[in-house]
Specification:
Distance between the termini: 18 Å
Shape: globular
CATH class: Alpha Beta
CATH superfamily: NAD(P)-binding Rossmann-like Domain
Structural class: alpha/beta
Strand order of the largest sheet: 3-2-1-4-5-6-7
Number of strands: 7
Number of domains: 1
Bound molecules: NADP nicotinamide-adenine-dinucleotide phosphate
Order of helices and strands: EHEEHEHEHEHHHE
């Protein structure tokens, strides 16, 4: 997938975990690659420092989409919305309210608002356009202790199905895909394993997966995610990475 085309790519949460692996395995020459995260620091990225659980950050991202697209006149634009959080893990009636609010704002609201901003920024342009959202098995399987996380991922899936139908009608629509990456060896997984089975019963399964060496490496999953750009998939497809590897 090497190319000398003018390419603009945003990855939310490219400072760590899967997002950093996506940045490290980007399959293009000389892309303008933007990391939307709090920490930044990933080589090869322009860091836009944003706390995406804070609604005040969303117009900052909106402006970044518009300004770079306008200035770069790109032939290919990609947004991978990867940032997410499990915090706070635990039953909905026991967790901290401000942390729970941040979880809902990041996992549910930011995904839709930033997705909307991206679609609006690329609307009417004749360049190739891709939006990929990171989902989770928790969107379909109810995991006690992960209510706002699972609800946010389920919302992402339905948003993608709906927007995919809308974009199909456009002459130069954006291809919108949701992908569950499977169980990955990242900080998010470590947080889950550090949680008691009382708070999150499914945490035991992830401790076993890690002990058996069954957590996937972020780089190999990142390469599979990049391969989605070239695959013949219906707009609005919701898939699990194991379906294509
Ligand atoms: N790991 C798994 O097994 C697994 C399984 C299913 C789905 N997923 C999904 O895959 C994606 C990546 O997960 P991961 O395992 O790589 O997670 P991770 O290691 O915890 O990394 C999360 C990334 O999201 C960013 N982020 C978190 N809160 C943010 C905020 N408030 N504002 C801006 N950025 C924020 C972090 O950046 P900063 O801290 O620098 O802001 C970091 O770069 C997530 O959407 C997750 O739900 C992961």
């Amino acid at each position: 997938m090497t190319s000398l085309r003018r390419i603009l790519v945003w990855i939310s949460g490219a400072s760590a975990g899967l997002g950093a692996a996506l940045a490290a395995t980007i399959p293009f020459d000389n892309p303008e690659l933007v990391d939307l995260s709090r920490r930044g620091g990933t080589p090869g990225t322009h860091h836009v420092a944003v706390d995406l659980a804070d609604p005040e950050s969303w117009p900052v991202v909106d402006k970044d989409f518009r300004q770079r697209i306008e200035a770069g006149d790109p032939e290919l634009v990609v947004f991978i919305h990867n940032a997410g959080t499990l915090t706070p893990l635990g039953p909905a009636d026991r967790v901290d309210t401000s942390q729970y609010t941040r979880n809902v704002l990041l996992n549910s609201a930011a995904a839709q608002i930033l997705g909307h901003s991206f679609l609006s920024a690329v609307s009417g342009r004749d360049c190739e356009q891709h939006l990929i959202m990171l989902s989770s098995g928790a969107a379909r399987q109810a995991h006690e202790g992960e209510s706002s996380y699972g609800a946010g991922k389920a919302a992402i899936d339905q948003w993608v199905r709906t927007v995919g139908l809308e974009q199909q009608r456009r002459e130069h629509g954006c291809r919108v895909i949701s992908v569950s990456p499977g169980s990955l060896d990242t900080g998010m997984q470590a947080e889950l394993r550090a949680t008691s089975a009382e708070q999150v019963p499914v945490s035991s399964r992830f401790r076993e997966l890690e002990a058996q060496g069954l957590l996937a490496k972020p780089e190999s999953v990142a390469r599979a995610i990049w391969s989605l750009l070239d695959r013949d998939l219906d707009n609005g497809t919701v898939l699990h990475i194991r379906d294509i590897t």
